[in-house]
Amino acid sequence: MTDSSREFDVVVFGATGFVGVLTADYLARHAPAGTRIALAGRSQDKLTKARSTLPASAQDWPLIVADADSASSLDAMAARTRVVCTTVGPYLKYGELVLAATVNAGSDYVDLTGEVPFVRYSIDKFGEQAEANGARIVHSCGFDSVPSDIGVYLLHKAVSEAGEGELTDTTLVVSSFAGGVSGGTVDSMRVIATEARNPETRRILLDPQALSTGPGEHRLRTAVKQPSDAMIVKGSSIDPSIKGTLAPFVMAAHNTRIVRRTNALLGNAYGANFRYGEAMAVGKNPVLSAATAGLVSVGLGGFLGLMAMAPTRKVLDRILPKAGDGPSEKTRENGHFTVDVYTRTTTGKRFKSRVKAQGDPGYKATAVMLGESALTLALDRDKLPNRTGVLTPAAAMGDALVDRLRSAGLTLEAGPLA
């Protein structure tokens, strides 16, 4: 269902960037016939060039010149569309005016942020206005954090439908992963590392419930002690089927907070003692996996530390991907991910959900998840939960997004374990 009062259903902002082009290409190939889509960015020439690389169905898509630093251009863009789909990051640098324009227009919004401070800012600055204007602001609609958020949502549904109580200790395990890194991702990590010097930002980054509150940090739920974001844990402690030691997962510090926010927005539906963490499989051999997990933990901490210091950051900048760069088409096509979410319920039963996709997690698969999120908000409004404000993928779209992702080829399943 579309809104005829708006000229477009979806505007892809940042359509000349690496992920923006991938998202536009996905929409050109998979959006239902008649979906009204436009491409936006700061350069008419670059937009024209980007559009020329897309399938024939996109060649008549309108182009909108809008700049992340120009409030007036963003206001004009947001007022024309039902959904703003933005790939312009780092969002701490370029996201504020886009959010403001979207909320002022009462439009919906999806992005790819993996930046906890940006989501916290969004809640405090725009949460009440977004709710009043009927806008759905949905952050983290790519690999960060759709698999985590939807994986736990499916687990909750399966447990509830089986009448097996509530979720307790719940852990996402990245069971398999293959993909590349782009300059945009590196730039976001650079911004986070730099911002962490600020005591208030550091407080937000270290708070496991940093996003589980309303505007002005009004508490939405009672805090429960949560697992470490840098957990090193024996797989068998999560489920007897998991061999070896699990390593920290690089995006746990963001994904876990999105999942906890969903629980808060759903009225603590996952359970009074819901605890959620994320880890990554690094092999089944007890000795080698333990050693690898330790190296991963040290490496992640060291990398962020080096990114925060100007001299070492300059060295890293010479060897890391530049903004606008990304994995090759072969890497994108051959990539994949599988995440399994395990829980034990209050009745003592064990359940597992799985989210699996073909394609580079951060690029090809992310373009699918972001594109389908935008289409869900634009076309499935009669199927959405009656909820507005600063939301999460599961809280904003729930079953409607699950249905679209399944139709797009993702594996999404949940059920009891023997």
UniProtKB/TrEMBL annotation:
Specify the protein name.
Saccharopine dehydrogenase NADP-binding domain-containing protein
Q: Which InterPro entries match?
A: NAD(P)-bd_dom_sf, Saccharopine_DH-like_oxidrdct, Sacchrp_dh_NADP-bd
Alphabetized Gene3D superfamilies for the sequence? NAD(P)-binding Rossmann-like Domain
Q: Which GO terms describe its cellular component?
A: plasma membrane
| UniProt keywords, alphabetically | Membrane, Transmembrane, Transmembrane helix
Q: Which domain of life is it from?
A: Bacteria
Q: Name one GO biological process term.
A: glycolipid biosynthetic process
